[in-house]
Structure formats: structure tokens, C-alpha cells
Amino acid sequence: MTTIDAPRSGSGRPRRGINWEKYGWIYMRASGVVLLVLIFGHLFVNLVAGEGVKAIDFAFVAGKLADPFWIIWDTLLLWLALIHGANGMRTIVNDYANNPTVRRVLLGAIFASTAVLLLLGTLVIYTFDPCPANATADLLPSFCPVP
């Protein structure tokens, strides 16, 4: 009879410290449920309510980002989705990258790209101004007051 050892069973000693895998697993389940609500709410407002997809233009986005409710909604959607995806990629790398150096490089790339995208996305959401000051009138959307 052949016995197969448990994969990556370690030394048999209990590990000390924070169990990041457990908290990553819990995060994936909790964020998945919240993301379902956020995504379907986003799709309903953008595609079903009002005039549907033909109404989505610069003015529609500007109107949504003028409302604090939608700013918070979009920020939650951005952060939860990016971290959820990055955590999923981290799990895949941990499962399939056997070389420790390759694993470190891949995890570093995932972390760096997630941090950059979170920073840039949050900056866009909170600094979006459809009617910037000192802009020429021909570059402004039609709903902006002419300076």
C-alpha cells in the first residue's frame, strides 16, 4: 500500500502568529457577498434604470460622481474588487509557484500593482471635476457654466 504525505504539511509543529490564510479566506467570502450587492446595484443603475446604456456618457458619470452616496459606493466597489482579485491571485501564486524567489517576485508584483491601482482609482473618484477652473469654454461639457 502506498501512502501519500499531506501537501506542504510542514514540520508538524503548530505555527505561531497571525493566520493570514484564515483571514484571507474569510475576506474572500465576506467581500464576495458585499461585491454581489455593489456590482448588481451598479449594473442596475447604469443599465436598467433610466434610459439604459444609451444614457451613459460624460454627463451621467459627472452626475453620479457629484453625489457623495455614489462616491462611497464606487470607492467600496473599487477597493473590495481590487483586494478580492489580488487575494485570489495571491492564492494562485502560493499554490503554483514552487520557487521561493519566483513566488516573492510575483507576490511583490501583485501587491505593487494593486497598490498603484487603488491609489489611482481612489484619486480619480475623489478629485473628479467635470468643470475645472480656468478651462477654455470649447473644452468644457455643455452643462458647465461658461467662465
TrEMBL record:
Membrane-spanning segments: 26-49, 69-93, 105-128
Recall the taxonomic lineage recorded for the source organism. Answer: Bacteria, Bacillati, Actinomycetota, Actinomycetes, Micrococcales
Instruction: Name the InterPro entries for this protein.
Output: SQR/QFR_C/D (IPR034804), SuccDH_FuR_B_TM-su (IPR000701)
Q: Name one GO cellular component term.
A: membrane
What is any Pfam family matched here?
Answer: Sdh_cyt
* Record organism: Conyzicola lurida
Q: Does the keyword Phosphoprotein apply?
A: no
Instruction: Report what the protein is called.
Output: Succinate dehydrogenase / fumarate reductase membrane anchor subunit
Q: What is its main location?
A: membrane
Q: Where does it live in the cell? A: Membrane
GO MF terms listed in the record are: metal ion binding
The alphabetized UniProt keywords are: Heme, Iron, Membrane, Metal-binding, Transmembrane, Transmembrane helix
